[in-house]
Specification:
globular
Length: 165
């Protein structure tokens, strides 16, 4: 079985690989959206939805899929793998659900206040569900890396890099 430190390092390496290419790609896509808005007669709302899909939804969906695949290799327990899959699918579904709600608002299916309250509700429910799933994963595998621990470890490693420079 892989220790928590090894798991964290593997997940951190995965995030580090994706960040350099993702930054360059996002800058290019932001430039493309700005060009479409200025020269292509796109509305500001259409440009914002284009940016949401290209710079947030697609990259985060890919990162969530890669993280899920990596975490599946940490433990062979069926319950553990099922919960990891549920968590990964929930992350991706939340992003694309938000995009669907944005389209619904753009097509005048509901008002901005409804969109805001539904998005806030989805976010709160997603965070609570992720916390509960992490607690169940910790009961199954005490070496599981929860998202808050991964974020804390990532910050500590960044501080060490800055101190070395």
């Amino acid at each position: 079985m892989i220790t928590r430190k090894e798991r964290t390092e593997e997940l951190y390496g995965l995030a580090e690989k994706q960040s350099s290419m993702g930054t360059a790609l996002r800058i290019g896509l932001i430039g493309l959206a700005a060009g479409l808005w200025f020269y292509g007669n796109f509305s500001l709302t259409h440009s914002a939805m284009f940016l949401f899909v290209t710079t947030i939804a697609v990259p985060f969906s890919y990162m969530s899929w890669r993280k899920t695949r990596t975490q599946l290799s940490f433990n062979d327990n069926r319950a553990y793998q099922g919960l990891i899959r549920v968590k990964g699918i929930g992350d991706i579904a939340m992003l694309w659900g938000m995009f669907g709600l944005m389209i619904g608002h753009e097509l005048n299916f509901f008002e901005l206040s409804t969109l805001s309250s539904v998005l806030a509700s989805i976010l709160v429910v997603h965070l609570l569900a992720a916390t509960l799933i992490d607690k169940r994963l910790l009961r199954i595998d005490d070496e599981h890396v929860v998202d808050s621990l991964f974020g804390l470890t990532k910050r500590e490693q960044m501080k060490r890099k800055w101190d070395e420079k």
